[in-house]
Amino acid sequence: MIAGLTDWLLGAGEGRRERAVPVALETPNGLPLSWRWTGAGEPRPLPIDLQGERGARRDTLRFDAAGRAELRLPPDAYHYSLGTVPSATERGVVVVEEYSDEWRPAAPSLAAQPGLPAERVDRIGLRDRWWLFAIAIAAFAAEWAWRRRQGLP
Predict the structure, then answer these.
(1) Which of 14, 46, 97, 108 has a CA 20 to 30 Å removed from the CA of 54?
(2) What's the pLDDT at 34?
(3) CATH number of the domain that 53 lies in?
(4) What residues pair up with 50 in beta bridges, in sequence order?
(5) How do strand 33-37 and strand 68-71 relate by DSSP bridges?
(6) In what order do the strands lie in the sheet with 33-37?
(7) How many structural domains compose the chain?
């Protein structure tokens, strides 16, 4: 309720005329700019005009059922306007940064690798060696005999 009231106070509430807004005003190179549908009714395709240093571009934001759209752009700062007749509230600036994170999310891929069979070393535990038990029994018997000769219990 507080967030809705703050949105209404700061953004003119239900009277605002923006149909879509960017989720973030900047994005790293290689990731799409995300847009969120804020207009009344169901999301519908919305034309967008972009003006950057490399020239003008016209594209269409196609929103999914959740009201999100993505637009992949090369690095640049873009002045955008939404719709066929841009209004003052449907203009802004978005930036695709020159940098990109080192690790990009990508689909995992597996490739066949030539392998060699591993040389197996048979490991035998100490409990599996019967002669160790024989040595221990002989040592206990020798100690018992030595104690008896000394007169110890």
Answers:
(1) 46
(2) 93
(3) 2.60.40
(4) 57, 80
(5) antiparallel
(6) 20-22, 33-37, 68-71
(7) 1
